[in-house]
Each structure stands twice: as C-alpha cells, then as structure tokens.
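Two proteins follow. First one:
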Amino acid sequence: MLYKERILEGIRPQAERAGPDDQSGHRLPIVAARRSGYEGDSGEGDGPGVRLEQDTEKGRRRTVQPFTKRVIEVIKSIPEGYVMTYGQVAACAGSPRGARQVVRILHSLSEKHGLPWHRVVNSKGEIAIQEGEGRYMQKRYLENEGVEFGLNDLIDLDEYRYVPEMDGDVVSEKK
C-alpha cells in the first residue's frame, strides 16, 4: 500500500461518518450532506440559519439567507433621485457592520433581481467603483435621476440620502 493510500485509509472512516438521511432513507456521508445543503452550510458565507429557496439558471436550488433577502428589499426601496450608503443598507437589513456583504450582494445579484445598484454609494458620498465604465455609468444614472455631484464628484448626503422608515423587520418607503 502506498503512503498516499494509507493516509486516505486513515481519513476515509472520519470523512464517511453518517450524516443526515437522504430521500431514500440512507445515511449520507458528512461531506455529501454538506454539499447537498444540510447542516446550514450554504456556501455563501452568510452563516447558518433559516434559508429561502431560489431557482438558479442551471436548475439547481440555491438558498438565499435572510440578511441577503433584507438587503435586496432595502435596495429596491430606494426611490429615484436618492442614495443610500453601503453601511446604511447593511444597518437597515439588520447587520450594522455588514457593508462589505452589501457590496458582495450588489455585485452578484444586481442583474438577477433588477436592483438599482447605482443608488448605493460609500459613506463619503462617493461612487465606490474606481475608474472605468462602471463608474461612468453609475454617475450618469444618478445624474439622470436628478442627483447632483459637487466638488471631487461628491454627493451631498444631507440632501440626497434616503432614510427608510422601518416597520418591524420590513422596510417601508418614507413619504
């Protein structure tokens, strides 16, 4: 037996411990159970918890964490002509220190959910995208909605910041 095979033999019993049952009633190995979505492992980095199912283009089921769903709702609630900061969106969604997660959600789900990604800026009122077409497009979209840029392309957050009203866990538009 080769050295590599002996190492695998020593690991194999631990890796094949019985996990949750599959549909046929058989016990799944822990590794297979994690890959199939058991034990709160979504692979998204949002942590364990109640998950909502969502279809993907490949026909597989993918889960959306509650925080991700709330971020999507908050971003969709931003009206034309207003902006919110990444940190503000995260705080409204229930995680005040989750600004980087908001960036990730915007990057990966904007097109799929039709999010108004251009209405989210950094805490200084700047467009966070560095040079390039994305920066130009975000500025253009905001200007078309009536948002004005000051010196150094800063947005006056006192004038253009949107502050939604919170009804429990639900975001409602402020009239």
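Second one, unrelated to the first:
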Amino acid sequence: MSCSCKNKKAVDLTPLNNILCGYNGDKGSLIPLLQKVQGIYGYLSHDVISRISEVTGVKPAKILGVATFYTQFRLKPVGKHLILLCQGTACHVGGSGRIEEAILSFFTHKYNVKINEGDITPDGLFTLKNVACIGCCSLAPAIMIGEETYGHLTAKKVNEILTGLIEGTEIKGTGGQGIDVLETTGGYPKVALRNYGIIDPESLDDYIKADGYEAIKKCLVELTPEE
C-alpha cells in the first residue's frame, strides 16, 4: 500500500520566511501578514499556516479563526482568474443567477467536464466564487476579476469576457464606475469608501447622480411581482 503523501508537492517557504522576518508581533499585524502571504501563494495552505504559527507563536487555531472569519482569505487554491460573482440584493434581482448559469455553462462547453462554483478549471485558469456584495449595485448584475469590474452582464457578455481571458485579449471593465483598489491594502477592494472624495455624503442629489436608488427603482418600475 503506497502513501499518497509521497506525491505531495513541497511548498517553497522561502518567500514566506522573508515576510516573517518583518513580523513584529504588534496587535493587529496578523491580518496584514496573512494578506501578504496569500498574495504570494494564492491561498493559505496547511504548511503555510504551520510555519506562520511556528515563527510568530500565534496558535494555528487562532490563525484559522482569522482566515475563516474574513471572506478575503482562502484555504484552498484557486484559478489564475478568480471570478467574484456578486449575489447582493441588486445583483440577485438583476439576474445574478442567470449569470452564474452562463459562466458554468461556458466552462462545461469549453472543458467538456462539469465545473461547480469553487472548482478550478482543468487548465488552472478560472475559479468562480459567489460573494455577498462587491459594492457595485448600479452595475447589477456584476462580477470582479482581478482589479476589473464588469457590470450590466448578459450571457453573451460573459462569453466575450471569458473568451478574451483565454485568448489573452482581456476586455477592459467599467473603470471608475467599479470598485477602486486601495494601494495601501495590497490591492484589496475598497468597498465602503469607493465614493470617498467623489460625492457629498450628506447630499441626496449627489447620491442620485451616482446611481443611488437604481436597484429599488428597477424593482418598482421594471420588474413584475413574479420576478
């Protein structure tokens, strides 16, 4: 009887060790540390978590607690292009379910195998993940891939985006209308503060000009009770 452990690929911990050299143990420094580590490895593996615990003295259970509490962290590998499909209220009403079907259908026809949400495609290119909100209600239904936000999606547009990524002719997203990315947080999406410095938070007119109430307007004016 052979042990599958022999086939396990060893993780190169050199980049991790370089990061850990700068760890000072300050309160609140664990999350930035995990962000940097995930930025290198793509996810937080068992070996990586064990090494972090060994060097920092933080128990693995606490590291896992942080990693599972915040949705930005992943404990499983993902594809090169992580597709974040918004399932917030506006996107749900706008047809995010149909967009999910379109993405998974594209994968099925492209790879001739059933791909589920959370799976990695056989070529390692894609992983689809449903998320609660990406802060782009006026663009519903919407997805994020890397730093690009794509809104007002249809099945046809989804096919064009995914085909472009496969062929290396990436289609640009919605630019400034989507989620800005904070340089100070290592490229993590800025959601709650995306309109900071752009609109007056106390001005109803500014809010309406920034597509405020578009989701409720669509519910009341365009959709039927059945929809």
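SUMMARY FIELD: Residues 11 and 47 are 7 Å apart (CA to CA). Confidence is low (pLDDT under 50) at residues 1-7, 175-188.
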